[in-house]
Design brief:
77% helix, mainly alpha
Length: 137
């Protein structure tokens, strides 16, 4: 556990955590909205039936809860949260590169995603961020 009174949180870590928190909150809201629209025939058709829609909504809500928890972990200096974000960003970079090769018409959007993932990694692994995530004696 990290003592923020001894080791101030770097702005880059705060930025990443706030963006993650917003993303998670939007996932939760989106999932809840899907649940409210589960009886709409057009929405059911778009998701391959009510089961697909409900499953997508629940997965979205659960994913959002996990993202919010990880964001809170970043704000509290939990190294496990930083490791989870790192793994997700590396997977995002890998997927972006693969998609760019498989579908060259998507290279511009995939490149933006890869650049954002690299920036997140840089912000989480700077010297000051690494010091923030180290346990304090």
């Amino acid at each position: 556990m990290n003592s923020t009174s001894l080791n101030r949180r770097p702005g880059g870590v705060t930025l990443v955590a706030v963006l993650a928190w917003i993303s998670g909150a939007l996932d939760i809201v989106g999932g809840v909205l899907l649940l409210f629209m589960q009886n709409d025939p057009e929405m059911q058709r778009a998701f391959g039936g009510s089961t697909g829609l409900i499953t997508t909504a629940i997965v979205g809500i659960l994913f959002g809860v996990v993202v919010v928890a990880v964001a809170n972990g970043l704000l509290r200096g939990r190294n496990i949260a930083r490791l989870i974000v790192t793994v997700v960003q590396v997977l995002s970079i890998t997927a972006g590169i693969f998609t760019s090769i498989a579908a060259p018409t998507l290279i511009s959007t995939e490149l933006v995603g890869v650049i954002i993932a690299v920036i997140v990694l840089i912000l989480l692994w700077t010297r000051s961020a690494s010091a923030y995530f180290q346990p304090q004696p």
